[in-house]
Amino acid sequence: MNTPLINTVLSLLFIVTSGLLFTEVATPFLAILAGLSFLNLFLGKFYKKLNGLVANILAAVCLVALFVLVGVSDTVKLFVSMMLLASSFKLLQAKTVKQYQTVCLLVFFNLSTVYLFHQGLFETLVVSVLYIVNFAVLGYLTSPQSFKAANKQSFKTILLALPIAAFLILFLPKLPAFWQLPGPKLAKTGLSEQVNPFSIAKLAESDDLVFRVEQQPEQALQAPYYWRSLIHDEFNGSEWLISDILKSQQYNPIRRTITQSNGVNYQVIAEPSSSNWLFAVGFAQSDNSDVHSTYNGLLKRKGNLNKNIKYAVTSSQASLSLNEFEKRLYTRLPKATNPQTTALAKELAAEHMNAQGYFNSLLDYFNQQQFAYTLTPTPMYGDNTLDQFVFDTKRGFCGHYASTAAFMFRVAGYPARVVSGYLGGEQTKAATLNIYQYDAHAWVEVFFDEKWHIFDATAVVAPERLNGSLSQLGDLNEIFNDNLNFGLKRWSHFKAINCLRIHLEELDYKWTNWVLTFDQESQQSLFDSLFGNKSAWLTPLIVLGTLLLSFTGYFLYNKRPIRSREPLVDDITKLYLWAKKQGIEPVDTNTPLQNIALIKQQKPRTEAYLSEFEQIIIEVRYQQQSYNQNRKNRVRVLLNSLKTAK
Amino acid sequence: MNSTIQLIIDDLSTVIFGKQQQIKLALTCLFSEGHLLIEDLPGMGKTTLSHALAAVLGLSYQRIQFTSDLLPSDILGTNIFDAKEHSFSFHQGPVFSQVVLGDEINRAGPKTQSALLEAMEEKQVTVDSVKHALPSPFFVIATQNPVHQSGTYPLPESQLDRFFMRISLGFPDKHAEKNLILGLNNRNYDDLPVRINPVQLAVIQKEINKVTISNSVVDYILELVAFTRQDNHFVNPLSPRASIALARAAKSWAYIEGRDFVMPEDVQAVFPSVTDHRLGLNTGDSGYALKHVPVSL
Amino acid sequence: MFKRPAFVNQFRQSVFNKLLKNKHKTNEIELQHKTIYVLPSKLGGQFLLIALLNFVMGINYQNNLILAMAYLMVVVLVFAILTGYKNVRGLSVKYQSINESYAPKAPFARFQIHARSHCELIKLVNDNLESETLSLQNNEKKTVEIALKCSERGTYGFDRIKIISHFPFGLVSVWSYIEPTETVYVYPQPITAEKLDTQLHDNDEHDVDNAQVKAGSDDFYQLTPFVQGTALNKVSWKHYAKTQQLLTKEFTSDASQELALNFNMLSGNNEHRLSQLCFLVNQLTDQQMAFSLTLPNKHISKGQGIYHQTTCLQALAEF
Fold it and tell me: Which ranges carry the ChlI/MoxR AAA lid domain (chain B) (predicted)?
């Protein structure tokens, strides 16, 4: 056993696994894990292992570090980190083949836990490679072959097993979750429940995909797309929050005002996220079993499943009336904040008596007073941040404008709320939109004329923002790129890179659409399309039957007589087998001709055939003449005639 | 079958009754340019066969009766002082002939045996550090009594494999023995017609070299040889020299049978004669390997 | 470690015997459908457990990728079973021989393994004793040795030897048995015979034989140190006179040394006597002397050579 090699490979496996969890688990702890692996690499080079006491002390220290750095609040992360730590220590102390095998088994589990956090194409690819390597290590541990050969064998086996596993995924009836486990909390930035833009100096944006939208060509949504996600209805003087009242309203009975026929239908594929809020345009409802449609026309994930989810949505611009309670709710304001803005709002409201007029005058105000859109606003502190923004800095992003506008509507007595979600989307192909994290947006919904109207000051400050994604915005592109973390997107002005990016995008879309979001419902519809309605009993039967058939096939394939490379040998074996069935036992220490003589003696009728067979044996086996097609055919005929001659 | 060879066999069969197989084996040995050892009890016709063989092949032959007091110089020759020329001149011993018939070879002492065996191996004789080449072709046909007979010095195992083959005649069947008693056999083996001359012999040997031996047969030989090396039934496993001899003998046998290719049957026919003495087996033990090694198809 | 009580082992043994039906009581076995047994190894069981854990995790998080990994692991295990079966199928194991062994050394049995097709990582296991692990190419033959568990003098039946392979990945155990019908002889431990006087000599030793007469011709083979029990007329008195050294003349084919070894003539308990006899048998054979052996229950007549030696030693082991 080549211990240093196994040590090195397993250590590298752990390093890569830790790397995959980089964004999820506390970095200092990952550093500890990586340190352990490097220690392993180092010790492995010298065939050394940690001695018991040192290992125990180190383990205790690491365990403390685990609880301090990872914390106990997120049990899933704690569990995953603990498993990784335990496996690393097992490797540190592994000496015998058995111990290394245990480490390999643990790796199989550790690798699967990566999928709890990432299911992207890239991560899947990396994890798959690690799987193959791990199988190779397992094979290499007990076999004297080279590591390269072990890898080859492992690769071959997995390649062979993969279609069957895929088949099982497709056809084994999907079980519902046995019990609810705590979901892993992802580090991905999303929308937050408070909108407080004023203390932010620089908007950190990421180009992570948030969701995709598949539209039906005949029912396209109308741009601009305001993807609603959260409603903030309570202003506390500096930030907009979700009130407890609104939170409780989620569970009110849904007003079934829209059906698939009077709304726009489309599909959303949401990426995993730690927040439960989903995305839809306008007042939306979904019949998906994993999605909860709320009273306010928002959609929410059921449970805490961190996975891609695909749901069908029906959206409409529903007309509804607010009751008195709701009107009060949406016009509530804290007393005596932002006096200047309050005064301005009252002044404008006095000039325009009707709602539409006030709505337009606000737009005009933002348009004419040299307000500017920026991703790097000046941070503001203190009580009257809105005043500072309106009369002082006049530079801000969507949050600033939405906060201000909603405040001003409420001052004038119009029900208003801040909505956060996403704006726009990148058209990837005909009917698909990609919405990225940097498309996050906040706007105002204001109620008048029995309807919620979208008020978006950004629309007048930076009108380009309304159409298409932020990434396509000319003026802001530079600032946008500065604010973006590294990614292909940053280089999208290079044609080749952009092309590559779009192809990867396409691939990732297919991966998400076909693999990750394959759930009970998709399976059911697959069954229905394949077997019709009888699927209840037919499906498991077909699955079992196919599996049984393929394994039996493999078994029979293995059981087939081992063919000889020498010419004619298989035919002689066949003859012997035939003789055995006739009750004549050929002796293996006899030459073929002697055995044939034996058969001839017992079955005189076959003599003519056997004599010819003898002649061919002599020619092919002893005179080294070629076993050509002619002879092959003759032999086949002879063997067949034997059976009829008896 | 080659008609000349058939004639030879027929001629020899008039001398030794009912022993066609042994006659063919003896011819196989001579065609393979190997020395022949005939082992059997006294009175079985060993000497008769050896003499008749030499006679039909038309080769010059000398007979040496080995006794316990025979000295090496008695068979190799010796340097004798020529009084006229005042010098030593070499007088060739009986070994200087194309066929040497060594009767009861194991009755002589080891030194004498060694002298003959050395001559067989090297095809030359060294006397007083002068080398004397032996004629060509050079065959030794030796006979010996079974080892356990008293008053014998068994040939050392290390030298036994210089004999290409060892055959034993065995008792004649009833019919043959009856004819022997009635005196129907040809006692005058010296008068047998010469069927073949040394040149023809050389041609035959060349043709034997051309006999095809297929892979499957070579595999069979290898299996047999490997078996003797693995099974502890055998004291002395077969050497590569033995495997070469086996192939060569099988070819000769096939030629005598009138074929230009070897079959596993040929290997089986010659196997006991070629290997028994090399394996240190008694003659009765022959065919142990044949009974245990499957024939490659 | 937990030790199984004896009756469990006995029960196991009897169940085994019932199930195996003497299928493996043969000197040569070809591994075929009926004689190959396949189960996941201990590691395979743990592997399955991990697959199950993955499955539960995949179900609970409704995560197709984790589920795929769980299925993949199960499928690989099934493949491993099939591959493992294929690996040993057509393998033939043949008992060859046992080396001569003298107590207290346990003998080694030699088996020849012949693989018709490529075969990986095969080894023989006899309880806790293992042979080396072999891999064979197409149509290759290899010889493998394994220690047996008998170290005391006597005769034994063969142990049931396991032919096992954990190929591939160590996830499965594919095994069969071979139980040769041969008898295992463990010869007594050779102990130098302390006292061996002329009593041992058979009477017919004085019979005149020609080899003895010929010895006068000085055509002897070598001089060896005198061994007790050798006829005095073989001693080279010339040497004794010169050097006071007792040397024995040996002749190339010395058929004259005929000795009779007799169990009853020796002292000590049974084992001790057998050990001495064992020593003598070996020594006399080395010196190419003929001898006979008399045991209380058996008589082996005069003989010489390796076969004779084996017969005598086996008789000693059987006693």
Answer: 231-279
Which residues in chain A are closer than 8 Å to C79, comparing Cβ atoms?
Answer: 157, 160-161
Domain that holds residue A588: 569-645
Instruction: Say if the ipTM goes beyond 0.95.
Output: no
Residue C169 and residue C259 in one domain: no
pLDDT digits (tens, 9 = 90+) for C57-69: 888 888 889 999 9
Q: Does pLDDT of C162 surpass 80? A: yes
The Cα–Cα gap between B88 and C14 comes to: 87
Instruction: Count the domains in chain A.
Output: 4
Domain count, chain C: 2
Is C153 part of a structural domain of the chain? yes
Q: Which residue of C has its CA nearest to B109?
A: C219
Interface touch B68/C252, C-beta < 8 Å: no
**Using one digit for the tens of pLDDT, what is the confidence trace for A219-244?**
777 777 888 888 888 888 878 888 88
**Domain identity same for A426 and A461:** yes
Contact A622 B295 (CB under 8 A): no
Residues C165 and C280 in one domain: no
Whether the ω angle into residue A224 lies within 30 degrees of 0, i.e. cis, is yes
Co-location of A67 and A137 in the same domain:
yes
Regarding whether A372 and A420 lie in a shared domain, the answer is yes
| B272 contact residues in A (CB cutoff 8 A) | none
**B contact test, residue of C94, C138, C253 with most B CBs within 10 A:** C253
**Exposed, middle or buried, A594 (CB in 10 Å: 0-12/13-18/19+)?**
middle
Q: Is residue C55 part of a domain?
A: yes
The tokens describing B201, both together, are 């012999």
Residue type at C147?
A
Same domain, C308 and C230: yes
- Alpha-carbon distance A24 to A306, whole Å? 13
Per CB-CB distance under 8 Å, the chain C contacts of B151 are: 210-211
Q: Under an 8 A CB cutoff, do A591 and B291 touch?
A: no
The one-letter amino acid at A344 = L
Q: Does the beta-carbon distance from C252 to B230 stay under 8 Å?
A: no
Pair (A463, A552) in one structural domain:
no
Does residue A573 sit in the same domain as residue A552?
no
Looking at the structure, do residues C38 and C180 belong to the same domain, yes or no? yes
Domains and their CATH numbers in chain B:
3-195 (3.40.50.300), 210-297 (1.10.8.80)
- Indicate the residue of A589, A592, A624 with minimum beta-carbon distance to B212: A624
Burial-class residue C79 by CB neighbours within 10 Å (0-12, 13-18, 19+).
buried
Distance to chain C for A558, nearest Cα, Å = 6
- Report the distance separating Cα C102 and Cα C99, nearest Å: 10
Is A497 inside any structural domain?
no
Chain B interface includes C141 (CB < 8 A): yes
| Shared domain check, C165 and C21 | yes
Of C112, C143, C210, the CB nearest to B151: C210
* CA distance to partner chain B, nearest, from residue A644 (Å): 25
Structure tokens belonging to residue B215: 């892979």
What pLDDT tens digit does each residue of chain B (297 aa) get? 567 888 888 888 888 888 888 899 999 998 898 999 988 887 888 888 888 888 888 888 888 888 888 888 888 888 888 777 778 888 888 888 888 888 888 888 888 888 888 888 888 888 888 888 888 788 888 888 776 666 777 777 777 888 999 888 888 888 888 888 887 776 677 777 888 888 888 898 899 999 999 888 998 999 888 888 877 677 788 889 899 999 999 999 999 998 899 999 999 999 988 988 888 776 556 677 888 788 877
Count the helices and strands in chain A (H runs, E runs).
22, 17
Range of the domain at C49: 17-185
By C-alpha distance, the chain A residue nearest B213 is A622
C303 to each of A266, C274, C295, how far by Cα in Å?
Answer: 103, 19, 15
Closest residue to A622, CB basis, from B214, B268, B290? B214
| Whether C253 and B153 lie within 8 Å, measured CB to CB | yes
Which neighbouring-strand residues pair with C102? C187
Compute and round to an integer the Cα radius of gyration of chain C: 29
Residue A190 lies in a domain: no
CA dihedral A537, A538, A543, A547 (to 10 degrees): 110
